[in-house]
Amino acid sequence: MLKMLRKIPFLGQLTPRDLREVHKISRIREYGPGENVFTKAQSANQMFVVLSGRIKIFTHSGGKKRKTFAYLDPGDFFGEMALLEGKPRSASAEAVSYTRLLVITYTEFRKLLLSDPMLTLYLLRTVCQRLRKANEAIEGMMFRNILGRVAQALCDLGRRGRKVHGGIELGEHYTQQELADLVGTTREPLTRALSTLRRVQLIETTDGRYFIKDPVKLAALGLV
């Protein structure tokens, strides 16, 4: 278990002694596919680190429309912002697949931050990156057309993909509804955009797995 914790960037900043302390005070929870970790507006007293599986961070309107903010993989952490602010959750978290999470309570989370300045710096850097990404998403919603937004979403997912034959294969399967939620649209506009990207040979799809044939041109389209 300690060896696994050392591989997590957030916890890898700690000394071996502090890491052993985290191992003592934290606990592991398991979630099945589609199971909620927490919901928007819920009170917050824990943060989480993904040990295995996959987590989706999202919100939804009063109707059926959803907006997915991020997919989190092993090594990622979440739930820290509500603890820092002392406010309810601003979004919901759901397990996409069978997932194991390391759970740290607010009290222990606060002790961790006070114990190691480098850990606090890493946390602030990560929060700033997420805020920058949120600003880019807002800008995209306001100024980019749907084709550009879909291209940008695929490029973002491709950062964790696998380089194959000069292109990038996304590491996970995505349904059209999942992509629509990520872009912040409905399935019909998304389907048209994907068809266009396939027609101009920027992407290929096979059994729900996306392959980016020309990452450079797709990234350029994401700026439109």
Q: Summed up, what is this model?
A:
With 224 residues, the chain is of the alpha+beta class. It has helices at residues 2-6, 16-25, 80-85, 106-115, 117-143, 146-158, 176-183, 187-199, 215-221; strands at residues 27-31, 36-38, 46-52, 55-60, 66-72, 77-78, 92-95, 99-105, 162-164, 167-169, 203-206, 209-212. The strands form three sheets. Strands 1-8-3-6 form a four-stranded antiparallel beta sheet.
List the helices and strands and how they pair.
Elements: H1 2-6, H2 16-25, E1 27-31, E2 36-38, E3 46-52, E4 55-60, E5 66-72, E6 77-78, H3 80-85, E7 92-95, E8 99-105, H4 106-115, H5 117-143, H6 146-158, E9 162-164, E10 167-169, H7 176-183, H8 187-199, E11 203-206, E12 209-212, H9 215-221
Antiparallel strand pairs: 1-8, 2-7, 3-6, 3-8, 4-5, 4-7, 9-10, 10-12, 11-12
Helix pairs in contact: 6-7, 6-8, 6-9, 7-8
Describe the structure.
By secondary structure, the protein is of the alpha+beta class. It folds into 2 domains: 2-140, Sandwich (Jelly Rolls); 145-221, Orthogonal Bundle (Arc Repressor Mutant, subunit A). Helices cover 44% and strands 25% of the residues. It is built from 9 helices and 12 strands. The strands form 3 sheets. The chain has a 4-stranded antiparallel β-sheet with strand order 1-8-3-6. A hairpin with a 5-residue loop joins strand 4 and strand 5. Helix 6 (146-158) packs across helix 7. The protein is globular and about 55 Å long. It starts with a helix and ends with a helix. 27% of the residues are buried.
